[in-house]
Design goal:
The N terminus is likely disordered. The longest helix has 18 residues. The protein has one domain. It is α+β, with helices and mostly antiparallel strands and 231 residues long. Strands 4, 5, 6 and 7 form a 4-stranded antiparallel β-sheet that branches.
Length: 231
């Protein structure tokens, strides 16, 4: 994934940044009845997103920890966007010059997934973004979302996709694949789920290797596949 202008590499094992924070402000966002919380820390703002004030503050506090680890993320009132076909909500941040975007069923869960990506970026340099157009794949038995990923240290790029019975399940599974793919150094994507009688079948493809998961729901089948690779 190409860097945005001014993007900088993440430096591992840096000393935690001491924060001096002041005023917290709240802004109504332009989409999905969501709230943007912004807090001044060390002369700039830290941001958090949620449906409620409490959820936005919780998200903000998570991004404060990310800032302490050396990754500064920004957002604005238009950072929540509805997905293509009305499937999913995207929470878009810019972290150290790199675009990240998590998806969820609500602004709260989307922002939590964005925080998971930013946390991974602080730890390993990996950043991922679900593209607004082309992330969602139509499924008969659930939901599937793709993320494009890269790493600020290795400069490698790859893709992942999560599969689940719900939008939130699919994207939680995508976050697990993000962490696994960073460690394994390979793309991992779910194919379209299939059904045989009452048993759901999820196929995970990691660099040409096929892992087959089974369960009574798409989420259970995807979890079975992840368990087989230790994700």
């Amino acid at each position: 994934m190409p860097a945005a202008a001014g993007a900088s590499p993440q430096i591992a094992n840096a000393q935690p940044l001491a924060l001096s924070c002041g005023t917290t402000e709240f802004v109504g966002m332009t989409s999905n009845s969501s709230t943007l919380a912004k807090r001044q820390c060390n002369g700039s703002y830290v941001y958090g997103i949620g449906v409620s004030v409490n959820e936005a503050v919780e998200n903000l506090n998570g991004f404060m920890a990310v800032l302490q680890a050396g990754v500064s993320c920004s957002a604005d009132a238009s950072s929540i966007v509805s997905g293509a076909y009305g499937k999913g909500v995207f929470a878009q941040f810019v972290c150290n010059g790199w675009s990240i975007a998590g998806v969820g069923n609500s602004p709260t869960t989307a922002a939590r997934n964005s925080l998971a990506i930013a946390t991974e970026m602080a730890a390993t340099g990996t950043h991922c973004a679900a593209p607004l157009q082309g992330s969602y794949y139509p499924e008969s038995w659930g939901f599937r979302f793709r993320y494009d990923c890269g790493n600020t240290q290795t400069l490698k790029s790859w893709s992942i996709s999560g599969l689940g019975a719900s939008i939130d399940d699919a994207n939680v599974i995508a976050m697990r694949l993000m962490r696994y793919s960073t460690a394994a150094g390979q793309s991992c994507n779910f194919e379209k789920a299939e059904i045989n009688g009452v048993i759901l079948h999820a196929t995970l493809v990691c660099n040409g290797s096929y892992i087959h998961g089974y369960g009574s729901s798409v989420t259970a089948a995807a979890n079975d596949a992840l368990a087989q690779i230790g994700a």
